[in-house]
Amino acid sequence: MPPAGRRIGDDFVDDSDSDVSITGLDEEPSRSKAKGKGKAIDRKKKDQGKGKAKDQAYAWEATYTRSWDTVQEDEAGRLEGAVQDLIARGRRRRLLAPAAAIRRTIIRHLVLVLDLSSAMMDRDMRPTRFDLMLQYAREFVTEWFDQNPLGQIGIVGMRGGLGERIGEMSGNPQDVLKAILERHKLLPNGEPSLQNAVEMARSSMSHLPTHSSREIVVIFGSLTTCDPGNIHDTLDECVKDRIRISIVALAAEMKVCRELCDKTGGQFGVAMNEGHFKDLLFELIPPPAQRAVARTGGGPAADLMIMGFPMRLPDTSPPSLCVCHSQMKSEGFLCPRCLAKVCDVPTDCDICGLMIVSSPHLARSYHHLFPVKPYSAVMTLDDTPEPSKRCHGCAVAFKEMPSTMLGASGEGMSFYGRYRCSECHNDFCTDCDVFVHDVVHCCPGCGK
Amino acid sequence: MDKPSHLSVIVDLSPTQWAFCAQSTAPPGLPLQTFLSQLLAFLNAHIACKDENTLAVFGAFPGQSVMLYSSTGEAMTSTTEATDPNTYRPFKTLDSTVMSSIAERFNSYDVTEEEEPIGLVGCLTKALCYINRTISVVSASAQGTEGATRSIDPRILVLSVSPDQSSTYIPIMNSIFSAQKLKVTIDVCKVFGADNVFLQQAAHLTGGAYVQIERTDALLQYMMMSFLPPPAIRQLISVPTQDRVDFRAACFCHKRIVEIGFVCSVCLSIFCQPVPVCSTCRTKFPIKTLQRLNASRPLATTPSTPGTPRPLTQKNGAALPRPG
Ligand SMILES: [Zn+2]
Ligand SMILES: [Zn+2]
Ligand SMILES: [Zn+2]
Ligand SMILES: [Zn+2]
Ligand SMILES: [Zn+2]
Ligand SMILES: [Zn+2]
């Protein structure tokens, strides 16, 4: 699916509830609702007066109105009215975001805690909470490594009143995925113990260097926790260790869960249905802004690290021994300092100790540092002596006449469908505005 | 396999580099005129391959990036014969549109002025914007049938003669990642000059081919054999693969291309020497680290430098034995 389409899909969800989600506080429930009833947007607008409770989608209700897939495709076909509203929303959100480069913690360490208690066999999410959790956890790991290439993930399970180490901390997505691959090894049973699991996660992160972030993400389906001691002591320890705890609850809000998250600067959310569950989980993927960590006491200390960028040998090169496993291999990476051959990056060179990373790994996070400034919507062409006829990005022709089809929430949208870069003063169409800011992160006009 | 394909060609049109190329004797060079006639033959071949094939040509001029031609009619010059809507995409339209827009730009250059770096980033991003728009239109019109969303196989071919511009490191990397997201293959044909680090990475990361032309007089044959078949067919024929991929990066401070860099742990900015404050995120680094790094620098070539900082001591990591 093209990313632009996905983005639009996400915004669409916000959109259908423009009247209730202004505060942003109740945005989460309304998101989930719209997920379920994506298609029903027009009808819903009419009977909005009939009360919110009626619109609230139960998970079972959502199964036979799962039409958000179709909705997305409709959008690509330019359903002007509704589409414009949601694009406007995305634009406004972008304008609100701080333009200055935020400091982000990019070397992340995360322990994913999976609830494997019997409550996970509940069928209120399809096929079961457990199967859905496994599926999303796998997608989460893949996407997380994509966005945090130098990070590491460990997996801990909660089952039978104990914490269970399922996957060791690893920087290799394949290792992590292998740990949660086999369903039969993870079958739920017994009670969960939040304290045991958090303690186990905490101990597996205790040795980490100071400049990395430590996070725990808990997927919690139960309404009880069976702890050996006082969980508030564990909480205090986590605060002291600067561990950030985020919890995605599948059943209902528990006070202790909320407290764990609030005190450590993490996020807490209760999933309303499948789609919302995924949204909540995937919100935890982008590197957190540093100030969120700062609240809990300064965040990890910064440091300057020395790294080497290797040369990759193709699989047609003459075989030679690698220094990591002493195996004859053709492909590999050459350490730039000592020219030893290692099998995979990122790693530390076994000969000279240099940290070897492939530079694209680092570069993947640079768009967080240098975001493209938001384009301004062109409201009038009177002060432009010679307006360009075509979009500077994709060369599509601009509309001659201002559009009158903007919806009620179309503020911030241009009547001409033109958006202007403040640096290079080129005009872009709506599609390119979205694409440049969400995908390319580089203005075609000024190259910044 | 029998899908129509879209090709966006980015032509490096730096007058200085082409002058070098034309004068070069070892290896034998190639005048721009000859190059363009071979290029046009190749472009004609692409649109002739299949009726639904689409084509866009972008020119990377000094400090400028221009769409020279597109088969959907976005870039038409004022020449009357080229705008005839009744012509069925003849080769002539393509040739005259491309040639006249190139001539137009070249005539406006002031030879005495120093040449700006070419607009390669502009071309890449414009090509991506264009592909992004055409993909969404196609998927909308072809919805319903399974897999129809990828009915066009988009790819970008970069014909390069200029050396790396290290100042464009971040924008080029960002373009590469967006190409990955759009599943666009980037092929690189290095017509003249030394290897291009960033374009090597572009081809490697998007699954394209990086071909360094050894005999410029055979350019057309190189292009026909390597870049005409869409990526799906290339698995069957043997397209020249990349030898080595250089993963060097450009430092943020002097835009030098470095193989060993000093990296800020907060934002991953790369510097070519130890700095007290990160210029990107304003993080101050501990004095101790700086002293240690500075002390170890002159000795950095000896493998057993004591005190070389190893902040991420993850001996496990990727060094774990893996199956296979
Ligand atoms: Zn090895
Ligand atoms: Zn080494
Ligand atoms: Zn556009
Ligand atoms: Zn700009
Ligand atoms: Zn530098
Ligand atoms: Zn920094």
How is this structure best described in words?
The complex is a heterodimer of chains A (448) and B (324). Helix content of chain A is 34%, strand content 16%. Chain A has 448 residues and is of the alpha/beta class. Among the domains of chain A are: 16-96, no CATH class; 108-290, 3-Layer(aba) Sandwich (Rossmann fold); 310-356, no CATH class. In chain A, the strands form five sheets. In chain A, strands 3-2-1-4-5-6 form a six-stranded mixed sheet, sandwiched between helices. Chain A has a three-stranded mixed sheet with strand order 7-14-13, with no helix packed on it. Chain A has a three-stranded antiparallel sheet with strand order 8-11-12, with no helix packed on it. In chain A, strand 1 (108-115), helix 8 and strand 2 (152-159) form a beta-alpha-beta unit. In chain A, helix 1 (3-15) packs across helix 7, helix 8 runs parallel beside helix 13 and helix 11 (231-240) runs parallel beside helix 12 (255-264). The longest helix of chain A is centred in the first third of the chain and has 19 residues, at 129-147. The radius of gyration of chain A is 25 Å and the shape is globular. Chain A starts with a helix and ends in an 8-residue tail after the last helix. In chain B, the strands form three sheets. A six-stranded mixed sheet of chain B has the order 3-2-1-4-5-6, sandwiched between helices. In chain B, strands 8-9 form a two-stranded antiparallel ribbon. Chain B has a two-stranded antiparallel sheet with strand order 10-11. Chain B folds into two domains: 5-234, 3-Layer(aba) Sandwich (Rossmann fold), CATH 3.40.50; 246-324, no CATH class. The radius of gyration of chain B is 23 Å and the shape is globular. Chain B is an alpha/beta fold and 324 residues long. Chain B starts with a strand and ends in a 28-residue tail after the last helix. Chain B has nine helices and eleven strands. Chains A and B meet through helix 1, strand 3, strand 7, strand 8 and strand 13 of A and strand 3, helix 4, helix 5, helix 6 and strand 7 of B. The site of one zinc ion (ZN) has 5 residues of chain A, from loops. Chain A: It holds the Pfam family C1_4. Chain A: It comes from Dichomitus squalens.
